[in-house]
Amino acid sequence: MAVSSSTPSPTPQRQARLVRRWYFWLFIVVAAYAIAAIMHWDARAKLWVVERMTPQAQRDASVWLPDYHAFIDGKAMTGLETDEASDLTYNPDTKTLFSVMGKHAFLVELNLEGDVLRKMPLNGWANPEGVAYLGGGRMAITDEREHLMTVVTVAPDTKALNAADWPQFDLGPSANQNKGFEGIAWDPRRGQILLGEERPAAMFTLKSDDQGKWQGDKVKLAYTTLNLRNLSALDVDPRTGNTLVLSADSHMLLELDPTGKQVSFMTLLGGLNGLKDTIPRAEGVAMDESGTIYMVSEPNLFYVFRKF
Q1: Tens of pLDDT along 268-299?
Q2: Kind and range of the H or E run holding 126
Q3: What's the rounded Cα separation, in Å, for the pair 174 and 159?
Q4: Residue 162 belongs to domain spanning
């Protein structure tokens, strides 16, 4: 009598386990892909490879963010516990920093260690989100909710600022009216203001002189490499002319050359670049003439990065 060599059919219980296992690994793959897409890990990996291949001479001619290390890591700014730091700018004339607070509208002056020197109420601003130093005591402040830019003069004895007292410029509509113009920086080499739209991340230029007088309408920059979940802040390196682009949602600081090409990046996650913990929500960035980078995060954390 012949003996059958056929394999027994799997039991219903085994079939159910195999299906559950298949769904489990499918979920893992889909979740990993989604996380990678959200965090732009593919873009980071590509940029990391490009960075590794960059000649030393080009690195020396740029900001080169991979060489930066946190020297002040998440210092709480005393006196701002109930506020939300929205942006940051460096004043080379006073060697101090200025930050706008969005929750309660005011401008605060800080020393380079993040200590509060004075607080100036911003009367008439609905939602100040960006600030840029233009020179001669002049600063441009953006109101994200009203889509306005106001140019003010801050003197050593200024105690408060009233929007109605200063010239304003209508920035026009944005792609998402609730996520408008959040980043702003002055580019003295090119005589223009840089504007950053929060979401979708985009950059614009507004021609202006060093007196803060604008000329014409804003022009969108055709940058196709802003692979960021949002744009939180901008600054221009006074030494190289390169632009720093900060993204709170992507936990990243990008360096762009004048053509918009990505040069380098720094990830703002705990365990990297001297950070003990991930920066919760990085909202402002500024650089001084020596290359030191300053950063603020909501609600009231202060950071300093230097090359090591």
Answers
A1: 999 999 999 999 999 999 999 999 999 999 99
A2: none
A3: 32
A4: 55-307
Nearest to 133 by CA among 103, 102, 96, 169: 96
* One domain for residues 293 and 221: yes
DSSP lists the bridge partners of residue 257 as none
Q: What is the pLDDT of residues 4-41, one digit of tens each?
A: 555 566 677 777 666 677 666 666 555 544 544 555 55
286 bridge partner residues = 294
Question: Nearest Cα to 250, choosing from 41, 50, 101, 32?
Answer: 41
Residues 160 and 18 in one domain: no
Q: How far is the C-alpha of 299 from the C-alpha of 289, rounded, in Å?
A: 27
Distance of CA 3 to the CA centre of its chain: 73
Neighbouring C-beta atoms of residue 130, cutoff 10 Å:
30
Size of the chain in residues: 308
| Distance, CA of 302 to CA of 284 (rounded, Å) | 10
Look up the CATH number of the domain holding residue 206. Answer: 2.120.10.30
